[in-house]
Amino acid sequence: MWEYTDKVKEYFTEPRNVGEVEDPDGVGEVGSLACGDALKLTFKLDDQGKIEDARFQTFGCASAIASSSALTEMVKGMTLEEAEKVTNKDIAEFLGGLPKEKMHCSVMGEEALQAAIRNYKGLEPLPMEEGEVICQCFGVTDKEIQKVATTNDLHTVEEITNYTKAGGGCGECHEQIQAILDELWENAPRPVEVKPAPEKKPLTNIQKMKLIEETLEREVRPALKADGGDIELIDIDGNRVLVSLRGRCSSCAASEATLGQFVQTKLREFVTDDLTVEEVKP
């Protein structure tokens, strides 16, 4: 059974922007019912050239609905130049992550957005469709495999299947997919060696307190407020940071994960690795 984040569940059970924009400026259609997933994205621009409205129609699983719904929310207010930079990774991150087996749903969202923008510009369908079809079961080309592998740092056939469905049918294309990956990464530039960061000097109590307050204000509170929540610093006891969650965060079932995986991680990144975050109930 796949584990879904609360945000995926929310955007699946209460999807935003379902339907089709009337007299749209751009239309993008990807996938097919024969392959199990299909998505149609439409958008309308305002007088300033920003996306005023975006709507979707999809046939697919919970992840497909959530990804499509999230995408329409993300692009509203964007210019086309900004929307062109939205990737499947952005969609997955917006939802707090997707099961690896469902990442192809976020890829479908990115492709539909690119197709809709190209439609608005009067261009032909996505260039990736011009490549050689490698997976006959799902109609995935070598160009699509190369693009998704490069964007998401994929190195195995299983990963390609998770992101595109290629290889998930009869399996006859596995060798071809692996050959594409071998050639792609063999010719890729070697990663630059990163020198270890200099050891951090011990912080004084005043420096630590100031950094904790700044990090909560700059890195944590904006993200929580975006979801209707907030956080309050209650006290600092040595390396223990005592906080209280407010708003929607206070009653969220994932509050422990928010503190441990988000708040504590940010404080350790920007202050010191020794910090632990504990919640003080009101």
Fold topology:
Layout: H1 6-13, E1 26-32, E2 37-45, E3 51-59, H2 62-75, H3 80-83, H4 88-94, H5 103-120, E4 133-135, E5 140-141, H6 142-152, H7 157-164, H8 174-186, H9 205-226, E6 229-237, E7 240-247, H10 255-270, E8 276-279
Parallel strand pairs: 7-8
Antiparallel strand pairs: 1-2, 2-3, 4-5, 6-7
Fold and architecture overview:
Helix content is 43%, strand content 18%. It is of the alpha+beta class. The protein has three domains: 6-125, Sufe protein. Chain: A (Alpha-Beta Complex), CATH 3.90.1010; 128-184, Orthogonal Bundle (Arc Repressor Mutant, subunit A), CATH 1.10.10; 205-279, GMP Synthetase, Chain A, domain 3 (2-Layer Sandwich). The strands form three sheets. A three-stranded antiparallel β-sheet has the order 1-2-3. Strands 6-7-8 form a three-stranded mixed β-sheet, covered by helices on one side. Strands 4-5 form a two-stranded antiparallel ribbon. Strand 4 and strand 5 (140-141) form a beta hairpin. Helix 4 crosses helix 5.
Keyphrases for this structure?
alpha+beta; Sufe protein. Chain: A; GMP Synthetase, Chain A, domain 3; 10 helices; 8 strands
In short:
The chain has 10 helices and 8 strands.
Look up the CATH topology of the largest domain: Sufe protein. Chain: A
Task: List low-pLDDT spans.
Answer: none
- CATH 2nd-level architecture of the largest domain: Alpha-Beta Complex
- Along the chain, the helix and strand elements come as HEEEHHHHEEHHHHEEHE
Fraction in beta strands: 15-25%
User: What's the gyration radius in Å?
Assistant: 22 Å
Given this structure, which CATH class of the largest domain is correct? Answer: Alpha Beta
Net shape: globular
What structural class should be given to the helix and strand makeup?
alpha+beta
> Helix content range of the residues, please?
40-55%
- Please report the total strand number as a whole number: 8
Kindly report the average pLDDT value.
86
Overall number of domains: 3
Cα(first) to Cα(last) distance is 35 Å
Q: What can be said about the biggest beta sheet?
A: 3 strands, antiparallel
Query: What strand line-up does the widest sheet have?
Result: 1-2-3
What is the count of helical runs?
Answer: 10
